[in-house]
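quick one, 443 residues, struct below
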Amino acid sequence: MSPLSTIAAKQFRVSSSRTAMRAPSTQKMMGKLRCESILRPGSGTIRLTMEEAESLVNKLPRSLFEFAMPTAVPEKLDLAMSVAGNLIRIAATRGARHGNDVLNQETGESTSSTLLKYPLIHWLIHFADLTILSRIAFILSKHPDYRAVAEWWLHRLAESKEPFAVLYIVNKQFAAGPIKRTVLIDYLEYFAQRHLVDAMVLYGQILHERHNRTQEALVLFTAAMEISVPTGRKTNSLDEDPYSVLGIPQAWEMYASVKATTGDKQGIREAVEMGAFKLDHPTAFKFLANIVAEEGHLDKYEEYMTKAAMDCDAEACHELGSFYLELYYDGKGRDKLPGPSKGQGVCPKDLVARKYTNRELLQNAIDWLEIASTGGWGPSALIMATLLREAEKPHKGLRYLKIAEEDENSASRAKEVRLIYQDKTFKLNIEQEILSKQFTRFD
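---
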């Protein structure tokens, strides 16, 4: 059976892949409570005194900006923090205003005396790009102590028709459930009509998932795919796509997702191939790898999954490492390169395995599984732990076992393994009991 006939639509809705660190969640509830105590319902007004604002400014963590702007020079970080401080102070003095009143762009006249106290903000509003303010507010939103101010500013900027803020607010509302037709949806449609790719995708999502206007959505997704640029191409805004941080799916992902619901196998493949070959998107290569694997092209599977894994996608690293480990176990005890297969054609597994010695296959597997483990991928960590225990290095394996226990995908099995891990009589068949083989049909 072709993989295209069984692909679930939701598998194309890609969330951020796990890499070397997981997003912290321990402060989530406290941050929510702090935000709700300052921000009034609907984000229309904010309760913040100037004394509280100054306290927030004085405690502004530089690390927050260093993490968000890793390539920025110190002077640029200083400027970003200065803008952030001014945004906090302005929120305390203009907390009940509408976006256009806060930014005072409509008339082109001088701003009120409040804004004149902050010449940098005044200059950004009238002579530069409001997106800079939205980006700074977005960075602030990542810290629970500053989330209320950030949300208030993003609402005000969205009311002023700033694209980044409009996309942020509408995307957040869309993810929360039913979404009403508001002026922000009108703004989103406006940006979609003017070929802002992320606006086209988000508006298309809303048309498809909330209003059953699927054909209109497909037209938008197709147009967005055609004008999208490769993932690695630089832009003028902080050397990256300014909208990439919003988590809006790629156009090819949404097109493939819709086609999957209708069983259009050719449409799915075309979208995935466009995402891979035209846009150089690592996730597209991961999907394409699984498609070609079902067709028996394991050499192409290796090539495409490697492209995905090179982007530090923990799941792709796990899949690639498991693939090499499966090939290793198939030829365990073999010291030389496998010779050509007898009979007609070459076994799909041998087409890959014959490029390596068995020792090299094992090392390839360990390398990729270790990277996946660093990314918090429990199944990889469980394999690493058992390989190290088998090699009589349990002291090194315990670290991986802990990672496996913390991942719901492997926690139950990892806890079972821990019960016998330190036993002198430890015995476990990794090939049969731990490794999930994917390609036994090609044995």
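The chain has three domains: 1-16+161-281, 26-160, 312-442.
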